Hints:
Elements: E1 3-7, H1 32-41, E2 44-51, H2 53-56, H3 62-78, E3 85-89, H4 93-96, H5 107-116, E4 124-127, H6 130-139, E5 143-147, H7 152-158, E6 165-167, H8 170-178
Parallel strand pairs: 1-2, 1-4, 2-3, 4-5, 5-6
Helix pairs in contact: 1-8
Amino acid sequence: MKQAFFLDRDGVINVEVDYLSDPDKAELIPGVPEALREIHAHGFLAIVVTNQSGVARGMYTQNEVNAVHRRIDELLAAAGAKVDGWYFCPHHPKHTGPCDCRKPAPGMLLQAAREHEIDLANSVMVGDRLSDLEAGRAAGCRTVWLIKTGYGAEVVRTTDLTGVNVAEDLADAVRRTFAGEA
Length: 182
């Protein structure tokens, strides 16, 4: 079975833009291509799992989400990096009712694990919100990281994170994971 880094999208891969639906506004966070290359160099997959409640809110369509993902793929390819799978939850409980894919539920991770034959117990979740970490734990990931990009800096300032792995950004989390720090 394969191992993976499950990555939130906004604030982890790309610069946080509220309800990003315009591919032209997608901008990679510095260090992300290098981090993805490092993930692959260690034989891990890079799988994005992202809540996209703007779809449920009628702010944009699933096609627009896919267009943003294609643009991010283009930006990554230009830097010699890639994502192995894109998963998104288009739901929001106030608009569509409950679902099993919206983080903190582990549905997207479980689906990716089935489709890519991923060993969750030897995989890693990286996010900028507590719901990302909760999804990783619920799926059985061996390690979860909260990073300070995106909303992460605010979470660090306002939350007791005793026992939580905290890194500066994706590159730091990847480096520290492979250095055996978590």
